[in-house]
Amino acid sequence: MPEATKGRQYRREAAGPATATLLEARGVAKSFPHSNGTVTPAIGDINLSLDKGEFVAIVGPSGCGKTTLLRCLCGLLKPDSGTLSYDGQPVNGVPDDVAVVFQEYNRSLFPWLSVRRNVEFGLHGLSKAERRARAEEALTRVHLADVLEHYPWQLSGGMQQRVAIARAIATHPALLLMDEPFASVDAQTRIRLETMTASISAELGLATLLITHDIDEAVFLADRVIVLSPRPSRVLAEIVIDIPHPRSELEVKALPRFQEYRRLIHDLIVAKEPESADAATPASAETEPERSA
Ligand code: ADP
């Protein structure tokens, strides 16, 4: 069996048949009007989809509209045009089985609640015993079972982000959206969090959409990388990462194929970068997105 096929099979075993579309965006655009009459076009015309159990990373230059796109995809922000569907239904607000992890873990945790109670907090409609069991199970998955009664301020940044991840997975989501979740931690912690996220996502069969500006992180984690243009962003390319799971960081990053993927994505982003640091001029939209395997 070729290596790449083995990788896909691993994910299918973990997630069940990963063929059905879970999330779909068609022609989604969003601009922000300002009080002085000017308008910032953030996302231009986004078409993308995510299958059940699939891990997709979205990369693009800083300020290209990645966060805006994520907020639209999960129903936190209404797009100006286009259609969004989740599990075959139009998106109007955040669907019940979608969980989001943001970069600012220190702002998303309640400092006056213990680690365990922070995780229990998001579990509405369940009995106390069930909330407790789910929180403990999720915290065990992120290797925090020994600090259940600690408070967030007693933990390192990486541990706090693990609490935020536990809070998300304790809701038993079908889709996990992550917005630059590891951007505020040191390099070693980041690698551990990336590896842990990959395992959890595969074990639970979660569809995962990761927003990142880090090309290595995207290639290491994702089944598919979607590359965005400068704003107003559109999809420049979708690249299938043909590297089997489970992936070991050291081994994967040493593969010539890994280097080829990161070079390809880097070149796509740099080639479209405007000369000015602030992407004031919209990128031209003359080409169709590339799809590469
Ligand atoms: P990224 O996540 O890729 O860095 P963002 O989605 O945060 O990009 O922002 C894209 C553009 O939209 C930026 O120019 C940003 O200043 C602008 N923007 C984002 N949110 C708002 C908002 N609420 N009001 C006005 N402008 C916004």
Sheet with the most strands? Answer: 11 strands, mixed
Strand content: 15-25%
Morphology call: globular
Q: Count the helices. How many?
A: 10
Full CATH superfamily name of the domain at 1-6 and 20-97 and 173-179 and 205-293: P-loop containing nucleotide triphosphate hydrolases
Helical proportion?
25-40%
**CATH topology-level fold name of the domain at 1-6 and 20-97 and 173-179 and 205-293:** Rossmann fold
Catalogue the ligands.
adenosine-5'-diphosphate
Structural class: alpha/beta
Written description of the protein model:
- This protein is α/β, with parallel strands linked by helices and 293 residues long.
- It has a domain at 1-6 and 20-97 and 173-179 and 205-293: P-loop containing nucleotide triphosphate hydrolases (Rossmann fold, 3-Layer(aba) Sandwich).
- Helices cover 36% and strands 24% of the residues.
- It contains ten helices and eleven strands.
- It has helices spanning 3-15, 66-73, 105-108, 115-121, 128-141, 157-169, 187-204, 215-221, 249-253, 256-272; strands spanning 21-33, 39-51, 55-59, 81-86, 89-90, 98-101, 175-179, 207-211, 224-228, 233-240, 290-292.
- Strands 1, 2, 3, 4, 5, 6, 7, 8, 9, 10 and 11 form an eleven-stranded mixed beta sheet that branches.
- A hairpin with a 2-residue loop joins strand 4 and strand 5.
- Helix 5 (128-141) packs across helix 6.
- The two termini are 18 Å apart.
- The site of adenosine-5'-diphosphate (ADP) has 12 residues, from strand 2 and helix 2.
